[in-house]
Amino acid sequence: MKVLVTVMPKAGVLDPQGKAIGHALAGLGFEGVGEVRAGKVIELELAESDPGRAKSAAEAMARKLLANTVIESFRVELA
Amino acid sequence: MQAGIVLFPGTNRERDMALALQRATGRRPAMLWHRDTALPPGTDLVVLPGGFSYGDYLRCGAMAAQSPIMRAVADFAGRGGHVLGVCNGFQMLTEAGLLPGALLRNATLRFLSMDCHMRVERADTPYTGRFQRGAVFRATMAHGDGNYFADEATLDRLEGEGLVALRYATPAGEVTAAANRNGSARNIAGILSPNLRVLGLMPHPENQVDPQIDGTDGLPLFESLAEALAAA
After folding, report:
1. CB distance B108–A16 less than 8 Å?
2. Gap from B86 CA to chain A (nearest CA, Å)
3. Per-residue pLDDT tens for A4-54?
4. Contact A65 B101 (CB under 8 A)
């Protein structure tokens, strides 16, 4: 079963990468782009076939390693 | 004093650290491997040196923080052992939860390879006993992710408990935004654990320990440790 873990910088945590992307988009002439935040997506192939258990396993992995909850939030979805 | 320096894949500052410790203590530190599950008996100080452990994959220090030896290092710190983390070592200490906060990408997004100055915020710690409070010393920074972050409550607690060891400052000791090249919260360059025995800092004091190679600004930090741990 495939699970996607999306890791994003928490609100209030400076995201210079997102800012730089925003500036670059403005420089390319794309208008109307507000705040840009950059995170990452981690795709996990799990042996688990029960959706609930797969999700809670991925959440445990995110808390322990995939995200640093001091600065990042995460979201787990079944792919 | 018997020090041990931990080597991870991608560590690259262990030799300079060993020279600095040897110069201050007269003893050669042990080199420890990340797969080790125990520290050598008699270890007084564990050093997590700079580098790019595990290629900085996922987050700087995140992989190293989960490696086998870090459990032994955490136990050692829990028993009151002294642990020094420099640069990537500081990142590991925060990732392992041995120090609060996190090191974010530098605010400028640039890798910073340059000298900086740090003001010594307290001189009554095992790492700063040879400095005067308010003294300023020069060190080299070489990092892409040195922007110290913690939430306001944590920052207030660190300040209130006197756990901010070092702040980025001008050579005259003024804590200014211009002196804070990586954008760290409240100019924080180094923080201590509540028992003052774990220190993490981004700049490299081990770069300046030899009068013939860029001076000895960093040497007092290692001499302080040697003095504090001499009885051990």
Report:
1. yes
2. 20
3. 999 999 988 988 889 999 999 999 999 999 999 999 999 999 999 999 999
4. no
Which candidate in B87, B95, B116, B117 is catalytic?
B87
Clarify whether B87 is annotated catalytic.
Answer: yes
User: Nearest-CA distance from A47 to chain B in Å?
Assistant: 23
Closest CA to B230 of B11, B57, B45, B36: B45
Q: Is B223 a catalytic residue?
A: no
**Cβ within 8 Å of residue B46, ≥6 positions away:** B3, B4, B5, B6, B32, B39, B73, B76, B77, B81, B82, B83, B84
The CATH architecture annotation of domain A2-78 reads: 2-Layer Sandwich (3.30)
Amino acid at A34: G
3-state SS class at B115: strand
The yes/no answer to whether this complex scores an ipTM above 0.90 is: no
Report domain extents, chain A.
Answer: 2-78
Report pLDDT digits (tens) over B78-129.
999 999 999 999 999 999 999 999 999 999 889 999 999 999 999 999 999 9
- Catalytic site includes residue B82: no
Phi/psi of residue A12, nearest 5 degrees: 95, -15
Residue A8 has what DSSP assignment?
E
Residue B66, chain A, CB below 8 Å: the answer is yes
DSSP-derived pairing of the beta strands B198-201 and B112-120: unpaired
